[in-house]
Design brief:
Chain lengths: 445, 445
């Protein structure tokens, strides 16, 4: 089996999970700050029970009528703007984004796609083509793909000091679309994660999506909001991350995955009647063997039930704000923390070698993650510089968990700074750079 | 929700399944002759239990080590030729075929694909491109796709009277490959279902795959055997349908789906170390969020256990041969049955309007299916003419079930013949074609 592990040099063998905790073979308890797929908590008993009950009774494809699929579509529609009322069920976020691409192309009659720089939309051929995060390392950019700057106000061309970064970044999209059109290209879709995650936990400036939607719709294209990593209440204030962009904004297509089934392979595409009708007129049916099975729908419904019952959306707001506050205090204390950004339980801590240049502190981030693991805290890094600590824990992550992680973070950063200081003292004394391990190196134990 | 139903005019609402039976809201029991996904039987208790046990303990992604994925890869490898020793786990047959395409392209450095006519390999953008069954109705054939004749000895260019159809059909592949090469195209892969199913339950002549593999490997391409519909012992004699082609034949890539998890979204790609190594050297990891999760692997393992414990492969041989024998008796009796073909529990009954022309009896097949449904028997049709009755039931399908279905089939065909005869008598009497419903029409009840 081929798989890339977390901590490849000292992989963790997890045998059990519960809530926000994972347990290894020796019974050691790890706090999971990464596991966004286990949205309502690892092995949530209500979700497990729902799967089991339905598995015992019926699990077949959607060739027959079944109440679950109707109920589930109904429940999802209640969370979305009214226009998004047609649902396709699938098995993975990748399948959802691939279908979104097909829907967009069929509806618009166009082929091209505009994507954000560093975006990742899935592991399928068609999605690697629209994922700069992937295709940059492979055989490059297809002629039908157009990349626009990531609307990153910390590292991008328009930053926190810009008077209106939303307009500025949206104008970049307009420029790219126009230039493509001048070459005779026709845009089918603008694809974006509502909060770009692999790109480094980015929050696009409010208003950006509305402006982009105007620009791309003028070109005959649709707006696809990829909510695979960020949907289902993670952002706290709203059920969907695109809703952070304002009430006036509605995507034409929304894709869902990961958290939707708490680990069970479920995914969904929501779209408008107009888009779906254009797809149906091809006469080519869309059929997905497992998609929308009674079990997948039962699991999806259970996740919605738990979110509601345990008020996890509100919880995400409270705990998320608390964690952000603690992390901002750390920023005051540790110069390596260049930026703390986030909303709800979607948070990024951008580590820099230098506050002025904002050079990504890649090795330091890597070191920090491995030190946290020694403290039984699972955290990961991302972003083009792999220097952004990503918080995207199960939604039951608590205030105590937040306090605990930040305390450990503080201790390790303090330790790193001390090591660095003694290195420098030593270096000054010996007038040599040798003989001292970098702060990013592992300390002797 | 958008879904195409079986029996769109009088859809069935199934609420429960067990073994080879499905039950509707009123408690009526239907015999399922279609449900190949429920491979070891609907809601098999051992499979359901395995899922539940693992769901309660841990269901996370393959970023951490877990025994299940290792055990499962090991067990699968025992069913395959030694060379096929690297496994990728995914969520659907479509994801598997898409990965097979990426693997083939990476390994060969080529782009093009040769496929059988009428083939269907999945619902993703990349797979619609290599599925004549789909792209014929859409925007047509991509320049990198090359279609070869279906090796169908009943309807294809080389038939049962040909001295060596395997050679003749393989030569067609060789011709298509050469002609593509002359245009400067480079072939990455030959894709085929080991037994083409949507194309009409076709059994390629023995030896065909070996010859094709020789031809395409000479062109630098790999052979991909799609076992999504036909693997896991369905053919009885062998665990994999490609093994019907002889001991000397080994594909470079095998894709699995549908039956692999008895309805749970699981899929797999098996390939050689050489192919996998070429993929890894890109430095781009393959990651699939749900693929290879402890639950998916537990379910996959349970399916293998049940197949073994209940000796379902041997069972498929016995019941399949018995059903074939009964169907061949029907062929002697009813001229509408043009051909009965199959192996194990993969059987096709090709209905013709006329024995000489072999014109597909499309409406008659459709009528037959709706009459069988009234007898609580679920059967479907396929093939380019939608005139082939497809038997691909859960593997626990019994001799009694076979006898029951064939008895009903006999009664309905006899009835259709009588109606046809009285229509003709009537028509002769009245000298008019009006006033009588075609045999394919529904009779008044």
């Amino acid at each position: 089996a081929s798989c890339r592990l977390f901590y490849p040099e000292a992989p963790v063998k997890i045998v059990r999970g519960r809530g926000q905790y994972l347990y290894d073979e020796q019974g050691a308890e790890y706090l999971d700050c990464v596991g966004n797929v286990a949205h309502v908590g690892h092995c949530h008993p209500l979700v497990v029970q729902a799967a089991h009950e339905q598995n015992q009774v019926l699990n077949t494809n959607s060739r027959y009528l079944h109440d679950n699929i109707v109920d589930y579509a109904q429940r999802l529609s209640e969370t979305l703007p009214e226009q998004l009322c047609v649902f396709y069920f699938l098995n993975s976020g990748s399948e959802a984004n691939d279908l979104a691409l097909r829907l967009a192309r069929q509806y618009t009659g166009h082929q091209d796609v505009v994507v954000l720089d560093h975006a990742y939309h899935g592991h399928l051929s068609s999605l690697i083509d629209i994922s700069p995060y992937k295709f940059r390392d492979l055989d490059g950019q297809k002629e039908w793909v157009h990349v626009v700057p990531l609307p990153d106000v910390y590292r991008g061309p328009y930053r926190e000091d810009h008077p209106d970064p939303a307009v500025a970044y949206a104008d970049e999209v307009s420029r790219v679309v126009s230039s493509a059109q001048e070459k005779g290209r026709k845009i089918a879709a603008f694809f974006a994660e509502s909060l770009p995650s692999v790109a480094g936990q980015i929050l696009p400036p409010v208003g950006y999506f509305s402006l982009v939607a105007q620009h791309v719709r003028r070109a005959g294209a649709v707006f696809v909001a990829d909510e695979i990593q960020v949907g289902f209440g993670r952002v706290g204030k709203h059920f969907w991350a695109f809703q952070l962009q304002g009430e006036d904004f509605t995507p034409d297509i929304v894709t869902m995955g990961k958290s939707i089934g708490n680990g069970h392979p479920v995914a969904c595409v929501a779209t408008t009647q107009a888009v779906s009708r254009a797809f149906e007129t091809t006469g080519v049916e869309y059929f997905n063997t497992f998609g929308g099975s009674p079990v997948s729908c039962a699991v999806g419904l259970a996740v919605l039930d738990v979110l509601e019952k345990e008020q996890l959306q509100t919880h995400a707001t409270c705990v998320g704000s608390f964690l952000m506050e603690l992390l901002r205090q750390q920023k005051e204390k540790h110069p390596i923390i260049g930026d703390v950004r986030g909303v709800g339980l979607f948070i990024g801590v951008d580590l820099v070698k230098d506050e002025a240049t904002r050079t990504p502190a890649t090795e330091e981030a890597d070191y920090l993650v491995s030190r946290l693991k020694e403290s039984y805290i699972l955290l990961s890094t991302d972003g083009p510089g792999r220097n952004v600590l990503k918080f995207k824990p199960p939604m039951c992550f608590s205030r105590d968990n937040a306090q605990h992680v930040v305390a450990r973070l503080d201790a390790i950063l303090t330790d790193m700074e001390e090591t660095l200081r003694s290195c420098e003292t030593l270096r000054l004394k010996r007038s040599t750079g040798l003989g001292c391990r970098a702060a990013a190196g592992r300390e002797p134990s």
